[in-house]
Hints:
Strand content: 15-25%
Strand order of the largest sheet: 7-8-10-9-5-6-4-3-2-12
Radius of gyration: 20 Å
Number of helices: 11
Shape: globular
Amino acid sequence: MCPTLGTPRExxxxxxxxxxxxxxxxxxxxxxxxxxxxRHLARENGLLRTPENFLLYRKAIGHSNIFDTSxxxxxxxNILDPLGRPVRRDQLSTQEKLVFSxxxxxxxxxxxxxxxxxxxxxxxxxxxxxxxxxxxAKPGVPSIRMIHNHFIVFENExxxxxxxxxxxxxxxxxxxxxxLFLDYLRNVYLRFFEILDLTILKPLEADQAKLxxxxxxxxxxxxxxQGGVDxxxxxAFWKEYDxxxxxxxxxxxxxxxLVASNTARIPEAARYPDQIENILLFNNEFHSAARxxxxxxLEDPLFANEIRWRPxxxxxxxxxxxxxxxxxxxxxSVGNAITELLGIVVKRTDDKKAYEKVEKSLVDQLIEVxxxxxxxNLGSPIAAPCWPSGSxxxxx
Length: 396
């Protein structure tokens, strides 16, 4: 059973040309993941760094020019292997996880204060992780292969005025016939998440979490954050946010282990082994889907190259049209922008003049949120060319 199709939108977002040359003989993705480029990112667009090396920075090619920033664990200077860097919260130390959660809470709270009307603005933040075996040069692999969180604001009026994106756009990972899980596994996928012992996150019916502007997300497990923004200041919320991720990892590993080896087993690192056995391994549709995927991998080299054998996910926190805070999670695919989980495909254009019209407003907000993080002992400011002394200076 496929979810009702939504009305995904294609939003155009201008940016300035990145003033950096890619060396000859290397692909853009390979270069963007290099320690050299990541050092350049911090120097040109860095806003703040913590002792744990979390880096808050301005997105040079962003999703939205209303508000758009990101936090990464910039381990590029001490972990030189791009495949050896942390890409999920469960790979962080206790201290790193605490700092990452506090930074997320501070930035998201700022967004809620700055844009209080849910009818006017869509707010979201979220992580996207990749399979560590995915080729670095593969189109669609993000420019930074390490744990990161996106923070984005869209204007609902602009979303509704934007042209429709094609329903079969490969970036729309949770469309009813495009996602590996939702093609054949929607019912067992939703049922598996019902086993989580949650108190702050309240399960929602899939249709209850949809945005009016896009009709997304579609057919995904979703939870309302009871207590709203105040819940984000509680460690219990972040524990439950992690539980959602750990449940997803169990599902993903179990499915692709079955596809890979045709052997039904409980993954060694499973957090919910009883539920894997009771809900997944004894479910005939689960085995049927794994069989179909396995046969297609054996016969179709193009399809085989698309498979991410290790967990690749998108997990987001967003504010819906009525003001509720909602958490949802999906598998990741070649289209990896976090916005696509909510039916928003971003078309980025190189347009210096258009970007300059909005740059000061964007940077002023990023400086404001940076100052708040500093005040809460969450890092030290970085002086970049556009904010050398803590205020915006346009580039000549």
